[in-house]
Specification:
Layout: E1 2-6, H1 11-22, E2 28-33, E3 45-49, H2 55-64, E4 72-75, H3 90-110, H4 112-117, E5 121-127, H5 141-160, E6 167-173, H6 179-184, H7 194-207, E7 215-219
Parallel strand pairs: 1-2, 1-4, 2-3, 4-5, 5-6, 6-7
Helix pairs in contact: 1-7, 2-3, 3-5
Amino acid sequence: MNVLITGVSRGVGKELLELARESKNVKKIFACSSSTAVPCDSGKVNYLAVNFLDDNTIGNLVSSLKGEKINVLINNAGYLHHEEFKKANLIQAKKMFDINFWGPYQLIKGLLPNLIAGKGHVVNIGSMGGFQGSGKFPGLSAYSASKAALANLTECLAEELKEDGVVFNCLALGAVDTEMLKKAFPNYVAGVTSNTMANYILKFALNSSRLINGKVLPVSASTP
């Protein structure tokens, strides 16, 4: 399988990259990071720079992958800024939507020929904050809304593109012990490690496309 993973520089994405590298079922990895100082290609890993705040880099990435089949796309890149709504900075809110929603939207659209050729499984990494009916927390309105939009996009594309053989699912993650979470909530300790969550995501992405399509699935140890 050929697998593309975004947001590989840290946290869950970094763990996903390492696990995919070790997997015998993965032939080639396209590892995407917002850093322009990406490492040199190594073995089956092809490093690519893409910044969801810059439409040009998304276009460049799509062009560089012309003709490549993509069997799995994991939209893992994300951005979280914790700020109460009354004091909300609209620049930060827009940044969350650009990275958490519009980035994946444009990437899926641009790579659609690759995904159709590979009968691809698109796994969008959502959040319990964007899962309908879950408990909500102050200071996360824009973040949760951006993840809710991603979840809804998943459902819509699963229906619209099912005749093309592309499968779409969204995993709504609970709290994971990452740098991003620690920065937003310095005093909160998550009970799930990045490695544990990455293991779950990769197995789901590689093995579930024949059984599950168009679903937004909570991945959390607590009840919403």
